Each structure stands twice: as structure tokens, then as C-alpha cells.
Amino acid sequence: MQKPMRLAVIYGSTREGRTCDRVVKWLERELARFPQFEIDLIDPLTFSLPREHVPHHPEARRLADRLHQADGFVLVTPEYNHSFTASLKFLIDLFAEPWHGKPIAFLRSFTPLRSAMPSASIPPGAVSTVLAGCGIQRTRCAGFRE
Q1: Of the candidates 25, 49, 78, 115, which lies 20 to 30 Å from 10 by C-alpha distance?
Q2: pTM (2 d.p.)
Q3: Contact call for residues 122 and 84 (beta carbons, < 8 A)
Q4: Per-residue pLDDT at 123 exceeds 50
């Protein structure tokens, strides 16, 4: 049997009342149906990260270890100004190496009151391309249930 792909699902928001909590729970249930994945949920709120880019900070090193173990990433993020959140950008910019050569998918989380327009900075085929490469058919996320 082939070793499962370690997929890091990263919460892209650190705001109180964030929608990505519900979306990550839905995604975790959906991905649990596929034995080819081992899921690692990474919530930036569980790390005491520094406010500056200090990659050698102990909490940053702990996060880097988790990122390095991943074979691919799903970034669950709301859309702000046609892009992803500042907290997610900080997390991405804090490290360069863990992302190299690994598939990354963006899954946007939004409420019906928010825009569902495509984000200008997120490639339109990112999610479907990565999931198709892992043997999963693209699914509609709009009807997820808590």
C-alpha cells in the first residue's frame, strides 16, 4: 500500500467568528473519505507567532516543522480586497522553503453576504488542478453543511 499524502489544511484567518472554522470542518469530513490523504489541520491561532518575520523564533520553528512534513497544502481563506488575508500572507512569507515543489490549493470561505467573485491573486484552477492530481473529482463547495 502506498503511503498517504500528508495534506496540511491551513486556516487562513485569525479573526473572531471566522467562517473558515466551518469550512475546515466540512473539508476535513470530505477528505476523510479518501484514504490517500493524511490530514494535518494547522490553525495559526494555536501558535504564539512573533509579529515580525523572525523564522528562528521557537513558535515559528514549531510551525515550520509541521509545514515541512506536508506533501501538499490547502489554504482555507476568506477573500479580502480580491486577495487572501494579511495573516495568511504573513504565514506564507515567514517561510520560503516548505512551499517549494509542493501542490497548493486555495479554498475560499465566505458567507452569502460576502462576495463570491474570483480572487485576482488566486489562480482560477488552483483547487481543481491539485485535487484532480490527487485522484479527486472537483466538487461544489457551496452546499456544505456544518
Answers
A1: 115
A2: 0.74
A3: yes
A4: no
Domain boundaries, the chain: 5-133
Cell numbers at residue 79, please? 477573500
Distance of alpha carbon 62 from alpha carbon 4, whole angstroms = 22
Radius of gyration of the chain (CA): 15
Write out the CATH class of domain 5-133. alpha beta
Helices (H), the chain: 20-31, 58-69, 86-94, 126-133
pLDDT in tens, 40-83: 999 988 988 888 888 788 999 999 999 999 999 998 887 766 67
Secondary structure (3-state) at 26: helix
DSSP letter string, 115-144: --PPPTTS-TTHHHHHHHHTT------TT-
Asked whether the CA dihedral 20, 120, 128, 145 is positive or negative, the reply is positive
Q: Is 110 exposed, middle or buried (0-12, 13-18, 19+ CB in 10 A)?
A: middle
